[in-house]
Amino acid sequence: MTSESPTPETASSAELPIASHAEVDEASTARRRPPVKWLVVGVGIVVALIVGIIVILNVVSAKSPFEAAIEDCNLEGSAYIRVGDDGDTLLIDTQGDDSPGARFTDTACVLVALGVPDSTVARMDSTRAMDGVQSDEFDGIKAQWSYHPDNGLDLILTR
After folding, report:
1. Which of 40, 61, 82 is the endpoint of a domain?
2. Among candidates 82, 81, 84, which has minimal Cα distance to 103?
3. Of 53, 68, 142, 153, whose CB has the highest number of CB atoms within 10 Å?
4. Quick check: helix, strand or coil at residue 94?
């Protein structure tokens, strides 16, 4: 007889070495349990992805100051106070003697919500038809407007 160890193919079940339950449990647990450092790296990646997605969604959904002012004054969908140029322009067309338009109270609400300086509002209030297009700049916003009693105040704000 040779001193070869039996292989699973050649040995009977009586000849194979038998492992204890403790050895089997220890070996299978060692294979199933990932190292702690990989678990920490995995959790870190998941957290970073979640934070990144939240930041991107907030940036994408952030309203421009013009959109926020319209929302604050409940004027969404107004034909006379509207945002253009992907949120970079606000167009306000107030009512005149011969034309429909935004009410002055709605216009005032938007101007207050935007923090338009009193000096700029006073210049708008005192503009006459013969003054032509007037302009001012404040807080990175450029304002241009004209007024005629028949057409009202036409105001363009850009940032």
Report:
1. 61
2. 81
3. 153
4. strand
DSSP 40-62: HHHHHHHHHHHHHHHHHHHHHHP
Length of the chain: 159
Residue span of the structural domain in which 132 resides? 65-158
Same domain, 54 and 113: no
d(CA 32, CA 81): 63
Where are the strands (E) in the chain, listed by range? 81-84, 89-93, 134-138, 141-148, 152-158
Token reading at 102: 């935004």
Local structure of residue 150 (DSSP, 8 states): T
Planar angle of CA 134, 91, 106, nearest 5 degrees: 100
**Between the ranges 12-26, 38-52, 71-85, where is the mean pLDDT highest?**
71-85
pLDDT for the residue 5: 56
Cβ-based neighbour number of residue 159 at 10 Å: 14
C-alpha closest to that of 128 among 150, 95, 108: 150
Please check whether residues 148 and 76 belong to one and the same domain. yes
